[in-house]
Design a protein that fits this description.
With 135 residues, the chain is an all-alpha fold. It has two domains: 54 residues; 75 residues, no CATH class. The chain is 86% helix and 0% strand. It is built from five helices and no strands. The N and C termini lie far apart (96 Å).
């Protein structure tokens, strides 16, 4: 810093230092925000979910779990139908839970069976709708 010999030079130096301090404060705030942003809970959760979603093993397990849920619901619907019988509903719920647990443990074996069942159900609906359209 140069030697200050007058009040006007002192005022200029003070103004220069205040301007410098303001810009450094803004830079510091930007740097703190840049460092803090990845550690916000929302961003941590979002990054974790993205990392998990990109995992092929998790994706396969999720598909198996969803397939188990669908098959369990179908089994319950087949057992209970439109009945109001509480015993049938209880048996349907128990079978649904059993199928879901079985799918969770042996998803590779039952996965192919579930896909076949879904294919049959979807194919049946298509043929039914085609038959209605033809009449």
């Amino acid at each position: 810093m140069p030697y200050i010999d007058s009040t006007s030079n002192l005022k200029k130096a003070i103004l220069l230092l205040e301007t410098e301090r303001t810009t450094q404060g803004q830079l510091l705030k930007q740097e703190i925000k840049r460092v803090y942003e990845p550690f916000r809970p929302v961003n941590l959760l979002s990054n974790t979910i993205q990392a998990l979603a990109s995992s092929p093993l998790l994706r396969k397990n999720t598909m198996s779990m969803n397939l188990g849920l669908v098959i369990g619901i179908l089994v319950k619907k087949i057992i209970t139908g439109k009945s109001d019988n509480k015993i049938r509903k209880l048996i349907g719920a128990a079978l649904q839970l059993g199928v879901i647990n079985l799918m969770a443990q042996r998803h590779s074996l039952l996965g192919s069976m579930g896909r076949l069942l879904l294919r049959v159900v979807l194919h049946k609906k298509k043929t039914d709708s085609n038959a209605k359209n033809c009449v």
